[in-house]
Specification:
It contains three helices and five strands. It is α+β, with helices and mostly antiparallel strands and about 140 residues long.
Amino acid sequence: MYIDCIVESVNNDKTVLLKADCASSCEGCKGELFCKQKDSTFSAKNEDYNLKKGDRIRVYLPKKKTIIYTLFLFILPIIIMGIFLYLGNINVISTPLSALLAALGCLITFLSMYLYNRKNDKNNLPVVVEVYDRKTE
């Protein structure tokens, strides 16, 4: 998946802080009404380009990685919660214990994703693939 962005700042660790270029990326998008990307910033790897603030660039985020992380972040906690709540419903464990284990399972899942992302933050970043409009000073 390719996203057009505007460089907000260039960091010393070969990353850049980006903001989505909603003028070119989001034309005709059906999710414009509830889109939060207009206000959010994110980081990307920048190894080959001499970027400056205001440059318009294109970044690449692999679809497979995006889908896998989405599944882990949203689907896995729901599955874990459902399993523990079901075990409480069929009286394998008590209902209060199943609610506690369901909440604890969600917390552990989110915590493990957070720790994994902190450890591998550079590997999970989108990559700058093209500069299509340089900011001239």
